[in-house]
Amino acid sequence: MTPPLLELEHVTVQRGDRLALNDLSLRIEAHERVAILGPNGCGKSTLVRTITREFYPLHKPGTRMAIFGQERWHVFALRKLLGVVSATLVEANVRDICGLEAVLSGYFASVGVHDEFTQGMLDHSRATLDKLGVSYLEERPMTEMSSGEAWRVLLARALVHEPKALLFDEPSSHLDIAARAGLFGSLRAIVKQGTGLVMVTHHLSDIIPEIDRVILLRDGRVWADGPATTLLQSDPLSELFGARVSVERREDHYVAW
Question: Which residues of the chain have pLDDT under 50?
């Protein structure tokens, strides 16, 4: 059997004098399509950075953290199994490198290419850009791309080594309507082919129809966990966010106001 993407047992992460994750327990299977939703300050970003090994839990009795069944990882080996796309990564890659170089860097978990690459890597990078419909960005510097183009190039970067799952952090940040539609159309096609997805967001409109499980975070803990159709309703979301939230489902997408 394929081991779970993520197993957290009684995980606590401290940032300054605050517990950003507070005795958090969570399990996500490798091929699940999950959205993690919550208000600002609930622990979403800390959870992402804990998964990617930027942050580490406090050492406490009963604490356990495993990714794809392993508790210890070489971070570069992990990044070959888990494709990450985030606003932080977009900002890190806004340099004078072209789209093709950005995708190639996915093989090395780097910003830009600093190692020798093979012809096979080069060909597959071009094929991945083409698959996402952005082969025209091969030679364009990242600094000259729109936000939507940069996100799709970094999605190609995350996919180039054919990971078991994708981790998307706040995917609609700084995207206009057309750019968002293009990015999410590409993401839906990838997920339909069987790639696992963990999407971290505070926007209901980011939750694509393929997501069937929702985890609600509050104060660094799992506040609720269940089917999207059950939790993406006005009453639970109003209680979670501490304000009245009205929710409507339109053609498999959720709209909140």
Answer: none
